[in-house]
Design brief:
This protein is mainly alpha-helical. It has ten helices and two strands, in the order αααααααββααα. Helices cover 59% and strands 4% of the residues. A two-stranded antiparallel ribbon has the order 1-2.
């Protein structure tokens, strides 16, 4: 119960400022569900000293992450105007970014203790879950860079997934927080919707050999990857931002 109060208090500071009862109802459902998830995990016995608990903790953080991201893509409920839609998406995106911030803080503490959650010491699920949380820590690009350096030697030794390393490599290269320091990506994993049913990658190095590099890390050809966004991309990112008045939120790309 204490956890529920804490979460609601955190989100209360970003409640809907406009008079949109339907938006407030949807946000209330979001807040209550996240609070319920966190309260449920808080009841589990164990601590960071217990690797089984750590694996459960990583899975829990990913569960909250995915719930928040799904909400940003499909917040649910009918809204009556573009202004109401923009308010809803803005508020849900802020909540999702708060989820990212909290997950990042908690993940850092676990990384301080274990270095990384290698496939050998933990399992493939723990490795993937921790990677996904880092991948979504866009508000802390220096943290993403540090983890990338940790993972690079682990790829060669089998301690982490080459696919996941490729995603994080590209994420760091096209950092949303450092426009001046952006570089071309290597594996073509990061991009944006360019129209209905269409997704395009951000610039990549040596495009002619892109699929070869993707194959080396276990990624499907780019064309196949793009087809996966057919039902996700409803419009271009520019059109979405126009509707939201320039608001930003978590990326669609993993």
């Amino acid at each position: 119960m204490k956890m529920c109060v804490l979460v609601v208090t955190v989100f209360a500071g970003i409640a809907s400022a406009a008079n949109y009862p339907r938006v407030d109802a949807i946000l209330g459902e979001f807040d209550a569900h996240v609070a319920q998830m966190r309260a449920g995990f808080a009841k589990l016995p164990g601590s960071a000293e217990d690797k089984s608990w750590v694996k459960s903790k990583l899975q829990h953080m990913v569960d909250v992450d995915q719930y928040a991201r799904k909400a940003t893509m499909s917040p649910g409920g009918a809204v009556s105007s573009p202004e109401e839609f923009a308010e809803l998406m803005g508020q849900v995106s802020r909540r999702a970014m708060e989820v990212d911030a909290r997950n990042t803080r908690e993940l850092k503490l676990l990384i301080e203790k274990y270095g990384w959650f290698t496939i050998r010491e933990f399992d493939a699920a723990a490795d993937r879950n921790a990677w996904l949380l880092v991948q979504h820590a866009d508000a802390d690009p220096e943290f993403q860079k540090r983890v990338l350096k940790v993972l690079e030697p682990l790829v060669k030794s089998g301690g982490t997934s080459p696919r996941n390393f490729a995603y994080l490599f590209d994420r760091v290269a096209v950092s949303v927080q450092n426009a001046e320091g952006r570089k071309v990506q290597r594996f073509g994993t990061q991009g944006q919707c360019s129209g209905p049913g269409t997704w395009d990658p951000h610039p990549v190095e040596d495009p002619a050999k892109l699929d070869e590099r993707r194959r080396e890390v276990g990624l499907e050809p780019l064309a196949e990857y793009q087809r996966a966004f057919k039902d996700i991309c409803k419009e271009s990112i520019e059109e979405t931002l126009r509707k939201l008045g320039g608001a930003t939120g978590p990326k669609v790309t993993p």
